[in-house]
Write a sequence for this structure.
């Protein structure tokens, strides 16, 4: 059915919650702001690092610009604690053996995106990796899916986006491609229930049913 697969990163391919929570609380500490509850931090994830910090620092908006630079630097040097979700590596390898085109499309900055994929030894499986600052547009803009489809000569009817959030769903629909919702990620249950995905999987391996 599908020949081209665009994957979200955090909450879809990897569980990066420890990295995100520790990174945010490290950044808060540089401003002498008390640490924030991890669940609350994760509820803000999905629209990119800057928007995450805007939400976290809603009472301290004057710190957002500096906090963004601090946290980007933090991600660049810290030890990666993220792990792959069950079945991700084997599924990606199977898709490549089937000559499928694979891409990562994330609102995480590009350098930490590359770092975590290399650390987890899956970077070589992707035909393209797009962090939030590698192009002048990002999710949920249709320009990101259009850019990939145009540059790799992909047929949109053979292309599908896989993600865990409303942002990912909007990215797929804005770009006029189908969408798989994986329900084990970071999005809250109320929003998950509202997402009208073309497919909904709890097991990453189920993606292979669509090939």
């Amino acid at each position: 059915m599908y020949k081209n697969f665009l994957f979200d990163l955090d909450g879809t391919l990897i569980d990066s919650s420890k990295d995100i929570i520790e990174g945010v609380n490290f950044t808060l500490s540089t401003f002498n702001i008390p640490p924030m509850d991890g669940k609350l931090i994760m509820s803000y994830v999905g629209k990119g690092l800057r928007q995450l910090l805007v939400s976290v620092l809603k009472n301290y908006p004057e710190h957002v610009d500096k906090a963004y630079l601090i946290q980007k630097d933090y991600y660049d040097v810290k030890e990666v604690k993220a792990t792959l979700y069950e079945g991700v590596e084997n599924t990606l390898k199977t898709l490549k053996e089937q000559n499928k085109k694979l891409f990562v499309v994330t609102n995480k900055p590009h350098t930490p995106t590359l770092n975590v994929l290399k650390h987890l030894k899956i970077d070589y499986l992707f035909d393209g990796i797009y962090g939030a600052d590698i192009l002048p547009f990002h999710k949920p803009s249709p320009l990101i899916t259009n850019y990939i489809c145009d540059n790799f000569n992909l047929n949109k009817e053979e292309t599908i986006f896989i993600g865990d959030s409303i942002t990912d769903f909007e990215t797929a629909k804005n770009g006029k491609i189908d969408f798989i919702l994986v329900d084990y990620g970071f999005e809250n249950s109320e929003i998950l229930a509202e997402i009208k995905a073309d497919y909904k999987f709890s097991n990453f391996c189920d993606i292979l049913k669509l090939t």
